[in-house]
Amino acid sequence: MRKNIVAGNWKMNLTLQEGIALAKDVNSRVSAISPKCEIVLGTPFTHITEVVKTVDAPKISVAAQNCANKVSGAYTGEVSAAMVKSTGAQYVILGHSERRAYYGETSETLKEKTDLALANGLLPIFCIGEVLEEREAGKHFDVVKQQIKEALFHLSAEAFGKIVLAYEPVWAIGTGKTASAAQAQEMHAVIRGLLKEQYGAEVADNCTILYGGSCNAGNAKELFSNPDVDGGLIGGASLKAEDFLAIISAF
Ligand code: PEP
């Protein structure tokens, strides 16, 4: 049975003190309900250790938003998968469209990052998604399939079983334009079909596929009610405990 997850991506927002306050707030509100999904807080590297110490509600974990594609050594400014693991984080977000667009991340580097994350016991939340021109040209299914094949299909079925996918149409991220529930379901079903071809029905059925892109308290219920949408990767609406909790409560 696959898990439902609501994961927040704080991006480059909040000072350490603000991040701890938010984590505390989310933690106490989650403790007061019985969430029907796992909750992940995707914090800046600088915040992970303190946020890990702050949260103790049973279903909350912490994620980094990136890790290096090198093991260790002279890579100034980089943070390795082993370092992330040593903070107590359980997840790492990889391949976010902002990293692909602004930092030139390619399928080749993402393949390396995925391998290092898995080798160090981190669970990747691997992002894929098309830009608007690709959707308008009818290429969105091919683009997303290609992103998955190039970066992940070298993995064994066992290793792939640790991957969470996040379908995030780039045109919906931070724009207020959400994919319709039907568009999300359609893409998620195509992705699950691809996983079935490559790894078989069991791996495909067990893979958690999140939707991301302007998901909020108003649209989460409709999005999550689709059979192949197993939760959300949430940017803007993860920065306020009340908004984030409303999304968690959509399950
Ligand atoms: C994201 O950055 O992963 C995201 C989904 O952002 P937003 O919810 O703000 O669109």
What does this protein structure show overall?
With 251 residues, this protein is an alpha/beta fold. It has one domain: TIM Barrel (Alpha-Beta Barrel), CATH 3.20.20. It is 43% helix and 15% strand. The protein has 12 helices and 8 strands. Strands 1-2-3-4-5-6-7-8 form an 8-stranded parallel β-barrel, surrounded by 6 helices. Strand 3, helix 3 (81-87) and strand 4 form a beta-alpha-beta unit. The longest helix is centred in the C-terminal third of the chain and has 19 residues, at 181-199. It is globular, with a radius of gyration of 17 Å. The two termini are 16 Å apart. The mean pLDDT is 97. The protein binds phosphoenolpyruvate. Phosphoenolpyruvate (PEP) is lined by residues 9, 168, 173-174, 212-215, 233-237.
Summarize the structure.
This protein has helices spanning 16-31, 48-54, 81-87, 97-102, 107-119, 132-136, 140-152, 157-160, 181-199, 201-206, 220-224, 241-248; strands spanning 5-9, 38-42, 60-64, 91-94, 123-128, 164-167, 209-212, 231-234.
Q: What are the key terms here?
A:
TIM Barrel; 15% strand; alpha/beta; binds phosphoenolpyruvate; 251 residues; eight-stranded parallel β-barrel; globular
Order of SSEs, N→C?
EHEHEHEHHEHHHEHHEHEH
CATH superfamily: Aldolase class I
Q: Would you identify the regions where 5 or more consecutive residues have pLDDT less than 50? A: none
Q: Cofactors and ligands present?
A: phosphoenolpyruvate
Q: Rg from C-alpha positions?
A: 17 Å
The shape, in one word, is globular
